[in-house]
Design goal:
About 20% of the residues lie in helices and about 25% in strands. By secondary structure, it is α/β, with parallel strands linked by helices. It has one domain: Nitrilase/N-carbamoyl-D-aminoacid amidohydrolase (4-Layer Sandwich). The strands form 4 sheets. It has a 6-stranded mixed β-sheet with strand order 5-4-3-2-1-16. A 6-stranded mixed β-sheet has the order 8-9-10-11-14-15, covered by helices on one side. Strands 6-7 form a two-stranded antiparallel ribbon. Helix 1 packs parallel to helix 2. The N and C termini lie far apart (about 50 Å).
Length: about 300
């Protein structure tokens, strides 16, 4: 019997000026995404991934401690309660990327995984944390200042069994590091979701390279999800959307039309994983006994 799963990616603009109160941002973003989840349910989507830090702007463009107040506990915060109810209502598994508060002053860039019955399955934390300007202009005050907001993830590379598939989450900048993508495959991930915040002129040329390469190297599906639009007052660039699904052969099977609000939907044939791995025996032919330098410090 063929194993297929209908999956979706939500890319959405956040158009409220970053100088507005945090609760206004969260209320608008959550209301918008609840409507998009409803829309996804009507199209029969079984697993749906929201974008990185979905419940507000990409506030990491600046370094301002006021944004610490946006963080919530996972799984016990108010946003998680809403998302668990939405998952239960629609019989849909959700990947929900949020700003997580673990303890006072301890924050993570986190994606919660919720199963179709509303059960909290677990969470992945962004492992690799960038801290850089948003382009070649090194004098620009805005950028990707994530070390100001997040501790590096400490949960490793977990995979999650949902009703429909075994999934992994690799958040944004993590995709530049192939080692974790391999570990997700070794842990049995069938679909890896990569919720991101990526701007044109910064890493867009990599957008079409890295996720297909990761899918081929590991023999699984990847859902590559990018934010959309410009976000004032920082305007660090255009979050160019162009979200897509890529199969284990490296072929893009569904993609967004551009940088507008959109739900990218694809039917993924999970049996393709077995077919591809029977041909490309990358797991059989691995040589972990030769990889010690990968975990050694630089000289």
């Amino acid at each position: 019997m063929t194993r297929t799963v209908r999956c979706g990616l939500v890319q959405a603009r956040h158009e409220i000026d970053g100088r507005e109160p945090i609760e206004e941002h969260k209320r608008a973003a959550i209301d918008k995404h609840l409507a998009l989840i409803e829309q996804a349910a009507r199209s029969g989507i079984q697993i749906l991934c929201l974008q990185e830090l979905f419940f507000g702007p990409y506030f990491c463009a600046e370094q301002d401690a006021r944004w610490y107040a946006a963080a919530e506990p996972v799984p016990d915060g108010p946003t998680m309660r809403l998302m668990r109810e939405a998952a239960r209502k629609h019989g849909m598994a959700l990947i929900v990327p949020v700003y997580e508060k673990e303890l006072p002053g301890v924050f993570y860039n986190t994606a919660a995984v919720i199963d179709a019955d509303g059960t909290f399955v677990g969470k992945a934390r962004k492992v690799h944390i960038p801290h850089c300007h948003a382009g070649e202009d090194q004098t620009h005050p805005y950028g990707f200042w994530e070390k100001f907001y997040f501790r590096p993830g400490n949960l490793g590379y977990p995979v999650f069994d949902t009703r429909f598939a075994r999934i992994g989450v690799y958040i944004c900048y993590d995709r530049h590091f192939p080692e974790g993508g391999r570990v997700l495959g070794l842990h049995g991930a069938e679909i890896v979701f990569n919720p991101s915040a990526t701007t044109a002129g910064h890493a867009d040329y990599l957008w079409r390279l890295e996720q297909p390469a990761m899918a081929v190297a590991n023999g699984y599906f990847v859902g590559a999800l990018n934010r959309a639009g410009r976000e004032p007052p920082w305007n660090i660039g255009e979050f160019f959307g162009n979200s897509y699904f890529v199969d284990p052969d490296g072929q893009i099977v569904a993609e967004a039309a551009g940088a507008d609000d959109e739900i990218v939907c694809a039917e993924l044939d999970l049996d393709q994983i077995d077919r591809v791995r029977a041909h490309w025996q990358f797991y059989r032919d691995r040589r972990p006994d030769t990889y010690a330098d990968l975990v050694a410090d630089l000289p």
